[in-house]
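Standup notes
- DV: blocked on the single-chain target, sequence here:
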Amino acid sequence: MEFGTLRPLLASLALPPVAPLLLALLGLLLAFRGRRGGLSLALVSVMLLGLLSCHGTSVWLARTILPQFAPLPVAALKTGKVQAVVVLGGGALPQAPEYGEAQPNAHTAARLRYGVWLARQSGLPLGFSGGMGWAASESQRDSEAEVARRMALQDYRLALRWSEAEARDTAGNARLLAPLLRRDGVQRIALVTHAWHMPRSVAAFEAAGLQVTPAPMGYVIPLERDILEWMPSAHGLMASRNVLREGLALALARF
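- DV (later): unblocked, structure below
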């Protein structure tokens, strides 16, 4: 078994909501066996899960543990320093009965929309990289790149210049797309992905020998009134999980 196939499972065990829930269960088990501190561990774990479910926490985490990237001015794409816009896949819906075929998930759709907008504003060609991630469902038949190609044509009437459909993770995006770009003389790219994913993505593409201008989108920023930012919610938990995953990946990369 490839290590990559275990990565989604290991990540789930190390991140919320699973990690705090496991700690809470451990605390209850210890308490049931009469160990001191068991109930305290369970209580702290539940409180931690609640805190991580607040969008305000995800905003603080994003600003604290991840490098920050400013939005890309469109004018920067018209100086000749960038030769192409590249979008990274973020997943696909393997089945979308209402469409009768696979569709991009919310992350991929948002990244592609912004990439198309940048390409049209600048006149630069557009590329996309994404295969089937390590966590992809067995029912998934189309790569993220194929789904993105259809969406770009159907929704935006824009053809992708480059389409890489084998990558299973961020490192693979860079390793497999870079040769396609260099074959056409492209060395300098504007890289489109979520702001929380940008640090790892820039490092991967620079390691592949490309010059990268970050084009982040989907920032983790306040969305609602202050009091609502500190109410536990599903979107708050997801944002915290995304940020913590990237922070953990960056920390592991240092070793």
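- Follow-up: The CA atoms of residues 191 and 214 lie 5 Å apart.
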